[in-house]
């Protein structure tokens, strides 16, 4: 069995922005590293780390 058999979370990330304007974090509303034009969920580095801790696969 591979790790993919257990982890069902999509780990893809939006492209990094070259500069402002930056998208807001969906959790804390702080600026992220991602372009404002990106459509989808964007999180700042701190919230990304916290979410990864919360959703980490164990086992």
N- to C-terminal separation?
12 Å
Overall mean pLDDT score? 78
The Rg value, from CA coordinates, equals: 13 Å
Listing every helix as H and every strand as E from the N terminus to the C terminus, the arrangement reads EEH
Helix and strand composition category: alpha+beta
Shape: elongated
The share of residues in helices is 10-25%
- Poorly predicted regions are none
Q: Tell me the number of strands.
A: 2
- DSSP summary: helix tally: 1
For the largest beta sheet, what order do the strands appear in spatially? Answer: 1-2
Q: How would a textbook summarize the main sheet?
A: 2 strands, antiparallel
Strand content: 5-15%
Please describe what this structure looks like.
There is one protein chain. The protein has 59 residues and is α+β, with helices and mostly antiparallel strands. The longest helix has 11 residues, at 45-55. The protein has a two-stranded antiparallel ribbon. The protein has one helix at residues 45-55; strands at residues 22-24, 31-35. The chain has a domain at 17-51. The relative contact order is 0.22. A hairpin with a 6-residue loop joins β1 (22-24) and β2 (31-35). It has one helix and two strands. It is 19% helix and 14% strand.
């Amino acid at each position: 069995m591979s790790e993919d058999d257990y982890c069902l979370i999509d780990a893809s990330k939006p492209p990094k922005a070259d500069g402002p304007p930056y998208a807001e974090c969906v959790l804390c509303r702080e600026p992220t590293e991602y372009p404002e034009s990106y459509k989808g969920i964007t999180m700042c580095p701190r919230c990304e780390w916290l979410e990864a801790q919360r959703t980490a696969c164990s086992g």
